[in-house]
């Protein structure tokens, strides 16, 4: 299952990690793409079993509010996306568009987290640094607009389609397994019926348990004893006496 997910999403999200949703609070990384290793500068062996919230990418300018929201989204097993500053292994900071997508199995349980990372540093630098965030006239609160790189929505829709295909494929496999198990164990196979036809006896066949056969056997036995006694007697006494 993990190999299938990794293979399918490796073409849609070049920079992503897969986290194990079964381990509470930690959600360790069980797979990371080559693009993510190139983006962050970490080797795959260094990332295994670390949190998919990517605490190792946090730095001085990383928003505490965003990190708390990331952890909350993982705990609640829900989708989440935000923009925040991450730091590479050598210390270089970059703007990242983070997207968390929970992956469910055929039972509807969240088993994995797909956490994709998009480097949007160039897009952020193109924006006017002096232009501050917009302010809501009614509430007076600052409104931060989340910008997305070109093609982000298409990649997101494509990833959703892959998820639906995988879910449907797993459900079909589960139904086929249940059907096979029911046929093997749930319902007893029909017992074949064997019909025994009546044996038609011929009048010329002597049965071994018949009266005639028993009398015939006794006759043969008596004849055998007669021959066994009379032949030696005749040879020894009658034939021998005639020569004398």
Automatic annotation (TrEMBL):
This protein's UniProt keywords: Ion channel, Ion transport, Membrane, Potassium, Potassium channel, Potassium transport, Transmembrane, Transmembrane helix, Transport, Voltage-gated channel
A GO molecular-function annotation: voltage-gated potassium channel activity
BP GO terms, sorted: regulation of membrane potential
Catalytic activity: K(+)(in) = K(+)(out)
Major location (coarse): membrane
Region annotation Disordered: where it falls in the sequence: 123-150
Topological type in the membrane: Multi-pass membrane protein
InterPro entries: KCNH_animal-type, PAC, PAS, PAS-assoc_C, PAS-like_dom_sf
Location in or out of the cell: Membrane
Pfam families: PAS_9
Ranges for domain PAC: 80-132
Cellular component GO terms held in the UniProt record: monoatomic ion channel complex; plasma membrane
Domain named PAS: residues: 29-77
Compositionally skewed regions (Acidic residues) per UniProt: 128-139
SMART domains, sorted: PAC
NCBIfam families named in the record: sensory_box
Protein name in the entry: Potassium voltage-gated channel, subfamily H (Eag-related), member 3
Organism of provenance: Nothobranchius rachovii
């Amino acid at each position: 299952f993990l190999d299938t997910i990794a293979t399918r999403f490796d073409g849609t999200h070049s920079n992503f990690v897969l986290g194990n949703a079964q381990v509470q609070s930690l959600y360790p990384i069980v797979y990371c793409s080559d693009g993510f290793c190139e983006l962050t500068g970490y080797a795959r062996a260094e990332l295994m079993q670390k949190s998919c919230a990517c605490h190792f990418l946090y730095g001085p300018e990383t928003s505490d509010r965003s990190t708390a929201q990331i952890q909350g989204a993982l705990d609640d097993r829900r989708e989440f996306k935000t923009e925040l500053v991450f730091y590479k292994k050598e210390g270089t900071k970059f703007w990242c568009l983070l997207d968390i997508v929970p992956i469910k199995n055929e039972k509807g349980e969240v088993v994995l987290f797909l956490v994709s990372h998009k480097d949007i540093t160039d897009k952020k630098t193109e924006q006017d640094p002096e232009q501050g965030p917009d302010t809501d006239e009614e509430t007076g609160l600052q409104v931060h607009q989340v910008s997305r790189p070109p093609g982000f929505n298409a990649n997101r829709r494509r990833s959703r389609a892959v998820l639906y295909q995988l879910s449907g494929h797993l459900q079909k496999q589960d139904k086929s397994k249940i059907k096979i198990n029911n046929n093997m164990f749930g319902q007893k196979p029909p017992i074949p019926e064997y019909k025994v036809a009546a044996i038609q006896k011929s009048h010329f066949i002597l049965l071994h348990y018949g009266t005639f056969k028993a009398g015939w056997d006794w006759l043969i036995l008596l004849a055998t004893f007669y021959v066994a006694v009379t032949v030696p007697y005749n040879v020894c006494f009658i034939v021998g006496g005639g020569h004398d």
